[in-house]
Specification:
The chain has nine helices and six strands; from the N terminus they run E-H-E-H-H-H-E-H-H-E-H-E-H-E-H. It has helices at 16-30, 46-50, 53-62, 70-75, 92-98, 102-106, 128-142, 156-159, 175-196; strands spanning 5-10, 34-39, 78-84, 114-121, 145-146, 166-168. Helix 1 (16-30) crosses helix 9. The protein is globular. The mean pLDDT is 95.
Length: 198
């Protein structure tokens, strides 16, 4: 049986989505997937990033993680995106990367890939659902197969988001959070394997 190839792709300003991506990647590996943990390139000016201590610290912390490329998207059977909410939608860094994918899309290379998304915001209802749903709209254009967690695990009733895990910044990454993120990643791997006939 061929291992499912999963690209866990994140953008993280202050580290929340980086941590979420790490939890998801580990769960996917435990589920038997071959995983690439990848970061979206920073497009904000260096002076802006360096001007905020927490932002600069996260940039330094994630610098060794490879930037996501078109080759990674061709390689993967499934994608898990994680990025913060910015004014109710995905941050410009992630949107800029998505906007480069027209060539892959037009060749059908993003179609039939299992895909899911996670997000975070400073406040509980700071556009988290809107961000995930907005990403899913783009993914539908690709012809990707959206794998939302739904209410397929009892812990999801605690997070209240069947579209994809959403974290409130500064909230603890407790066992419930890790369970829900791990469940979303594992479900994505399982559905990707079914799509591939494994």
């Amino acid at each position: 049986m061929t291992k499912t190839k999963l690209a866990v792709i994140f953008y993280s300003t202050y580290g929340t989505n980086h941590q979420m991506a790490e939890i998801a990647a580990e769960a996917a590996r435990v589920a038997g997937a071959e995983v690439r943990l990848l970061r979206v390139a920073e497009t904000a000016p260096k002076a802006v990033v360096d001007g905020q201590e927490a932002w600069k610290a996260q940039a330094d912390k994630s610098a060794a993680i490879p930037e996501v490329s078109h080759d990674d998207l061709e390689w993967a059977d499934a994608y898990l995106f994680s990025a913060p909410t910015r004014y109710g939608s995905a941050p410009s860094q992630l949107r800029a990367f998505i906007d480069t994918l027209g060539g892959l899309w037009s060749e059908g290379k993003l179609a039939n890939k299992a895909i899911s998304a996670m997000t975070s915001a400073k406040t509980t209802h700071g556009g988290q659902e809107a961000t995930i749903l907005g990403l899913y709209t783009s993914f539908m254009h690709w012809g990707a197969v959206i794998v939302a967690p739904g209410y397929t695990n009892p812990e999801i009733f605690k997070t209240g988001n069947p579209y994809g895990y959403s974290h409130t910044q500064d909230a603890p990454f407790d066992d419930s959070v890790r369970t829900v993120i791990g469940h979303q990643a594992t479900r994505l791997v399982e559905i990707a394997a079914k799509i591939a006939g494994n």
